[in-house]
Design brief:
With about 140 residues, the protein is of the alpha+beta class. It has a single domain (about 5-135), classed as Hotdog Thioesterase (Thiol Ester Dehydrase, Chain A, Roll). The protein contains 2 helices and 6 strands; from the N terminus they run βαβββββα. Strand 5 (about 105-115) and strand 6 (about 120-125) form a beta hairpin. The longest helix has 19 residues, at about 30-45. The relative contact order is 0.25.
Length: about 140
């Protein structure tokens, strides 16, 4: 795993036929969907599912480096890691691997996540109980 990051969650999902594009591999936009679903699964496991009218996590940027093509059929695992916590934000790093080729990293991405009060549309300090939970694995 990456230095300075803590492995906190793993999600498995099937590669669907519809994930592929005319080039015969998973479309680059779908990788972002895989990362998004893994991030949401982690948030739900921590006890703070998306709440458009409440307080919780919002991403402010996302990135992905495509290292190996993925093709249907197959199953992937997305490992979610969290980096150092700031006042109101934290970095995530996510790694995508095929289950039948687990030693090969297919893609690596992540996002900067900010804790937001949706009613005020402003970032707020990460509550202490949330800070502690973010670094606890829920594998």
């Amino acid at each position: 795993m990456k230095e300075g990051y803590t492995l906190v969650h793993r999600t498995r999902t099937a590669i669907r036929w519809g994930d592929m594009d005319v080039m015969g591999h998973v479309n680059n936009t779908v990788y972002f969907r895989y990362l998004e679903q893994a991030r949401i699964d982690w948030f739900v496991a921590l006890g703070f599912p998306p709440d458009p009218a409440g307080i919780g996590p919002v991403i402010i940027n996302a990135h992905c480096t495509f290292l190996k093509q993925l093709r249907y059929p197959g199953e992937i695992e997305v490992a979610t890691l969290v980096g150092e916590l700031g006042r109101s934000s934290f970095q995530t790093l996510q790694q995508i691997r095929r289950m039948d080729d687990f030693n090969t990293l297919a893609a690596e991405g992540g996002a900067k996540v900010v804790w937001v009060d949706q009613r005020l549309e402003k970032s707020i300090a990460l509550p202490e109980d949330i800070r502690a939970r973010l670094l606890q694995p829920v594998l």
